[in-house]
Amino acid sequence: MSSVRTRIAPSPTGEDIHIGNLYTALINWAYAKKNNGQFIVRIEDTDRERYVKGAEEKILASLHAFSITNDEGPDVGGPYAPYRQSERLPIYKQHAEELIAKGKAYYCFCSKERLEELRSTQQKNKQIPRYDKYCLLNVKNAKERIAGGEKYVVRLNVTPDKKVWFDDVIRGKIEFDSNQIDDQVLLKSDGYPTYHLGVVVDDHLMKISHVVRAEEWISSTPKHVILYESFGWPLPVFAHMPILRNPDKSKLSKRKNPVWASWYLGEGYLPEAILNFLALQGWSHPDGKELFSVAEFIEKIDLKDIHPAGPIFDINKLQWMNQQYIQTLDNSSLKNKLLNFYEENQTIHGFLSNNKASETVLELAKTRMKALKDFSSLVHYLFESPGKDMMSEEHMQIIPLIKTALEQVASWKSSEILAVLKELMSKQSSAKMSLFYVLFTGSKQGLPLPEMLEVLGKDEVLKRLENLQK
Ligand code: GLU
Q: What global pTM score does this model have?
C-alpha cells in the first residue's frame, strides 16, 4: 500500500460543494492518484448549528459528477469507518481524556458570563482576548463536578513562550508564537469535538499523510501542531492552497461569482473543462499548455509547484475553455452530453434522439456554444416560430418577396437556399440577412440560416411565412 493518503473534509453547511473546495478536492485526488495512493472524503458535521440537511449527499453527488472518486468515505466505507464525524463522538471523548491525563488539556466549567466579562476586560486593556487558564489553575474537583452533572468543555493547555512551527510544502516554514494561541476548546459541552480536535484525531487515525487544504486554515494549523505533539504523533505533510479570488482580489464570494459546483454544471460547463480551469489556478503546465486532460494533470502535478499567491477566478476564461472543450467533442459525445443535460426538456431530447437533421445542427451549434445551456437558445426556433409581434413593417414588406424566392428552390439544400437569398439581396436593397434571420428565428443572428432553413424543411418555412401574413 502506498503511503500517500489525502483527504477533503467538507462541512455540510452549504448548498453543495463550494467551487473552492472542489479545487482542493481536485488537488488532493490528483495527488493521491499520481502516487497510487488513496483519496478519502470525511464529513465534518460537528457544527450542529450550521448543519444543512441534504448537503452531504449533494457534495458527494457533485464530486461524482466530476469523476473525483473517493476510495474511502461515508458513501463507500473503508477501513477507518465511520467517515462522518458525528458518528465518532466516543473517539474524540477518549482522546480528549487522554490529553487531560497527560496534562495537555483540562476541563473548564466557566460560564458564558465569566468568559464574556474576561473578553471585554481584555479588549478594554488592549490585550488579545484569550482564556486565562482559570479552571486549570483553580479547579481541583473536576471529576466530582462532572459526576454531579455540571456542564464542561475541554480546553487545550497551550504552553506560553514557545515557538510553534511547521513546514508547508507550498509556503515553507511558518512559525507562530504560542502566546498568540488561545487555550482552544477541544470538546464542546454538547459532547461534539471542535474542528481542531476532530480534524487532528481523524487525520491521524485515518493515516492521512498529506493535509492539503485552503490557506484560510493556516492560522488553525499551530493548534493542530500542538495537538499532534501532545498526542506524541508525527505531523502529516501540510500544504495550504491559495484561495480563489474574485477579480477585485477579494475572497471568492457568492456576491461576485457563483460559488456552488452544481451551478456550473447546471449552466452546462463540462466537468472536464472546469477541472482543467481549476487545475490552472495557482499552477502552470510545465510546457505552458492551457488545455490538458485530467490524466495529464495527474501525471504532472506536484504540490511544491503550486504558487501561493491567490489566483483570480476569471469566469470568462472558464467560458473560453468550456467552448474549446465543446468544439473538440465529436458529434456523438456532444449529443450524449446534451441528452443528459436536457433530460427534462422533451422537445430538445426528442429532436436529438429522433431527428436525423440533429447531426447537422450539432455540427453547426458546436462552434457557437460557450456552455451546453446555449444549445436551447440556438435551436429553439426549430420548435417554435417567432410571432408577428416580433416583426416590424420592414419584415412584413419583405415576406412576399422571400416567399416567392424560396418557393422556387427546387432542391431544398442549404447551398440553393443561400443562392436564392443572395440573389434576392442583390436585387432588393431592403433585403438583408438580418431581416431574414428575424423572420425565421426572432433574433438577428444565430446558426447559419440556410442550413437551418434546410433543417426546418421547405413546407415548414413557407407555412411560417404564410402564418405571419395572416
Ligand atoms: N471542515 C473543514 C472545512 O469545512 C476542513 C478543513 C480542513 O481541510 O482541515 O473545510
A: 0.93
